Amino acid sequence: MKSIKVLDKEFVPMIPADDIANEVRRVANEINRDYEGKTPLFLAILNGSFMFAADLLREINIPCEITFVKMSSYEGVSSTGTVNEIIGLNKSIEGRDVIIVEDIVDSGVTMAHMLETLKGHNPKSMEICTFFVKPENLKIDLDIRYTAMGIPNDFIIGYGLDYDGYGRNLEDVWVLKS
Ligand code: IMP
Ligand code: MG
To answer: Does the residue 158 lie in any domain?
Structure first.
């Protein structure tokens, strides 16, 4: 089987770009239907979601906006441990129908923090749209409205996802060789 090497690890093909494109279209159509008459604000979480967000938006045919944010973690700020802050939220989401765009929800910890912080900015509604989810690894009960693909608990790269910064540019998705 063909494989590629990224840094010290070997990856094998998992999902071809055509399959990815089909799922993006399916999710976009659901959003087009669900948000008809509304003007959603897509909030894409960097870095991983840049490719999915770009593809998704091209398939959205209702009026919409997009903005990008990043999550940062601070340690030792409080006795409870990690404090997460959303950087780059320079657009008001108050009263807006927000659709969070993520590349992957794994344990769900990142998304849970994101939801918690965003709630404080008073959006009218907030839904999650993620390309991948690893259902077996979900540790938090998240209500994920839109999922393109559920995958097993394996490490993947490509389509925006990285291994130590590399592999985001791959148009197919590759999985760590076991
Ligand atoms: P969570 O907080 O455990 O849900 O982690 C989500 C984050 O972990 C994602 O935004 C990714 O950056 C990263 N991640 C989780 N699984 C993978 C993977 O298979 N490949 C690359 N990054 C991943
Ligand atoms: Mg990410």
So the answer is: no
Q: Atom 12 in ligand 1: which residue has the minimum CA distance?
A: 48
Between CA 34 and CA 78 the distance in angstroms is 40
Residue 54, CA distances (Å) to 44, 126, 159 in order: 10, 20, 11
Q: What is the pTM assigned to this prediction?
A: 0.94
pLDDT score at 165: 94
State yes or no: pLDDT of 163 exceeds 50. Answer: yes
| Atom 16, ligand 1: residue with shortest CA distance | 106
Catalytic residue annotation: 106
* 78, part of any domain: no
What is the rounded CA–CA span in Å between residue 109 and residue 173? 23
- Report how many domains make up the chain: 1
User: Of the ligands numbered here, which is closest to the C-alpha atom of 107?
Assistant: 1
Q: For residues 173 and 167, what is the distance between their CA atoms, to the nearest angstrom?
A: 9
Residue-level length of the chain: 178
Domain extent at residue 100: 17-70+87-151
Quick check: 74 pLDDT over 70?
no
Of ligand 1's listed atoms, the one at least distance from the Cα of 103 is: 10
CA distance 41 to 20: 23
